[in-house]
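cache lookup: miss for this entity combination. No prior model stored, computing from scratch. Input as submitted by user K.M.:
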Amino acid sequence: MCSSDKTVVVGMSGGVDSSVAALLLKEQGYDVIGVTMHIWQDESPDKIAAENGCCGLSAVEDARRVSELIGIPHYVMDFRKEFQESVIDYFTDEYIQGRTPNPCIACNRYVKWGALLKRSKQIGASFIATGHYAGVDRLENGRYAVKRSASQKDQTYALFNLTQDELEHTLMPLSGYEKPDVRDIAQKAGLPVSNKRDSQEICFIPDHDHASFIEKERGGSVATPGNFVTADGRVLGRHKGIIHYTIGQRRGLNLPMGQHIYVIGIRPKTNEVVLGYGDEVFSERLKARGLNFMSVSSDDFPTGSSRRLWGKIRYRHEGEWCTVTRTGEDELEAVFEKPVRAVTPGQAAVFYEGNYIFAGGTIF
Amino acid sequence: MIYLDNAATTRLDHQAAEYMTALLAEEYGNPSSAYALGRSAKNIVESARRSAADLFRCKENEIFFTSGGTEANNWAITGVSLQYWSEHRIKRGHIVSTAIEHQSVLNALKLFEREGGSYTLVKPDSMGRISPESIKKAIRKDTFLVSVISASNEIGTIQSIRELAEAAHENGCLFHTDGVQAAGHIPLSLPGGDVDLFSASAHKMYGPKGVGLLYIKDGVKIQPLLYGGMQERGRRAGTENVTAIAGFGTALESARMNMGDEIKRVAEMSDKLIELLSSIPGVEINGSGLEENEDMFDLFNSRLPGIVSATIDGVRAEALVIALDQKGVCASTGAACATGAALPSHVLTAIGKSKEEAENTIRFSIGKYNRMEEIEEAFGIIKECVHQIRQS
């Protein structure tokens, strides 16, 4: 059974999506191995007892119970080092440099796919699978590409950075399902997780206070107060340190400027936060680098090429038509047909052609 | 399935299983009751106590049954500390222990520290040996207890208990040894005042889970951990776990009768496994060597016969354990966190392994129910899995 093409490791968070993913694969005849990734760092008994995010001890127990019910072996693997280095350190560094990172993309790329796939092959699996609302297909041109889900919960945005080798060894059994279907399947199968709430947006910051998290990670000195300025350089007041702000933010500025003032830029070199009025937070174009080509190869879209694609600039962005031009080996520019709100350095720009991810990169 | 994790727990001795099964339904009496059913239960418990005294060559009234090794270790550390505090009327004092103890000792020491005491952990050499000199050096004026594990559950190294106890006694300290991994596997005789306190657990020596013992030498003062009835001569309250104690007794008896032969058989299998593993490039065996020895009472400074700890270059033990499980071989990393994830062990880092080497260290532990054919079959699977992991 070792190395059989039917052996798949399912990353099980203890939630309903990955539980149903494991169940569906088992029903399709795969040899399924459940693995819960131990990624959180704190291990004090109080914290373990109180853990209710997606990755705690109670989550492990849920995953173990589900595995028992559907009749698959379950293991916990230690990914704390990879998670710290590739996700938490990256997340912290990006904020300190005035960008707004997406830790889920880093986690998918380096931890869930990079590290888990390698270790899954070590234990004799040919594939890994997750409970993402997304699909993966082999296209006519021989490329593997992530397919958008019809579901409201489409999660393809955070998967733009996967390599061809990773996609070739990936199964996404929830492709084509809607969340209510998935809950229904879980309930009918008697899985004890059918009513669990959806996981947090940033699983390692359950209280959403990312600034406090960064200060705790790096010591209090990372947030140095500085000036709020306008685009033309007028000083408007003092800010608490750039890690507290993100492009498009309106709340928490504490300025007597009326309510329609937004963060439109962050300047880490001068420790300034740039503010502007409503229309200044919209823009027509963006540049991205750190490119990953998916439904086409890099050679299929050489420097100078242009194409009309559907672009998303953050996880919850609905998307907008744009013309994408490859402006260099590792650089592209997108010009949107209607201005998009809050183009944010550090976030990903992901471009779709039809239902598939065409390419993506990190906004700078 | 090939079970090579006898240091995690052992299969129940066949005779013990038979005896316990017979007792479970019928012998439901409370050993404290005056009537025949109670007296019968009492006899069962006392007979097990005799078996323990016979194996460890001590007096019956020096054996106290507990719920297991953890309770015995907790009791030794905490009970002696409470005694010291009540005699000195101040919550201070110092304990000397080592960096290769089990968590049930280390975490009891942390409690002791939180309550006002302090402790020093002595480091072993690269073989895992603790020298009497390093113990002497760590002892302070206010040290009242020295606690050293008899033999490491992870790398198998056996300590020179006599000399370590002497080092403690010379400096007016009591000496405790955690014998959970050693008891029943190597001769540990406790006469002549070498050791003041000694912990053992049934399920590491073919007895049932949920029972262990603390040997307390005559005259050693120690406070109880559990308060209630007068069981165990007033030192450990709670109705006796009669069936489990009975099974423990059978296992103790079996160890006494067969230990010599078993050491030989198990050591042969370990030697074979070591020989086979060493044929894989990049494998290092940890702990001290199991020297040829005529006198089986002089095994100290060598390794437990059943434990084989191997560091395998480029092979995370976590992956190897899972890959082996896929093919029906049970082995472990020796340490795990609450989630069941394998953790690099503090024992391995204490003997100078890097974090990565510790992550690449797996423990096979062989027991009396293993057969030589199993070792050879398991090795074939181990080799295949190591190859698979190195290829991926």
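stored under new cache key. The mean pLDDT of chain B is 93.
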